[in-house]
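Work Package 3 (structural annotation) set out to generate three-dimensional models for the target panel prioritized at the project kickoff. During this period the team completed the workflow that converts sequence records into discrete structure tokens, so that structures can be stored uniformly alongside our sequence database. As a representative example, we reproduce one entry of 196 residues exactly as it appears in the project archive.
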Amino acid sequence: TQVLAFSRKDHYANNDCIDQRVNFLDELDDLVKNKIEDANVAVIQELGLRDGVTHAEYKIRNGEPYLMEIAARGAGGGISSIIIPKITGFDTAAFIISNALGEATNLFQPHKQNIYAVLEFFDFPIGTVKSVNVKEQNVAEADFFSCTVKSGEIIAPILDSRDRKGYFIVTDDTQAGAISRAAKIRESVEIIYERN
């Protein structure tokens, strides 16, 4: 059992159950990472999962991890398909297909993370959209970009994950670079609202 990556979530201010940003910025200290890895291995073994990929989420309180969720699947939102291969060199899709076909698979060789990533869901103010302006040249630099807001649409509070209006993924070889690229993409989408 091998942990591929660690991330930290930020949630919407009005809904702390829905993630608004997932940072792969190597922000956890090694002691916490070791505790998470030990807990994760124990849970996977207890569940009897012998092969494949898993996605787990832990809440950290006073330096101790508490399991919130674990699933026999990769993480969604481009994490398994875009972020994990980019920051680790491990192709999760190729691994799953090879495994399903009964082919021998090379075990992942862990290495220190040297690519950083930010996955961020948009957090637009509430209101009726008059128009959407996107700086296409800037968003073309994202590893992934999707903005679903349309003119005439009413943006409501984020009550569940379906209310989010798109997201983007950026990567860089430095933490500061990933954060800067995320800010650039975020600022490249301008929503003009109808007046009340």
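The chain has a mean pLDDT of 90.
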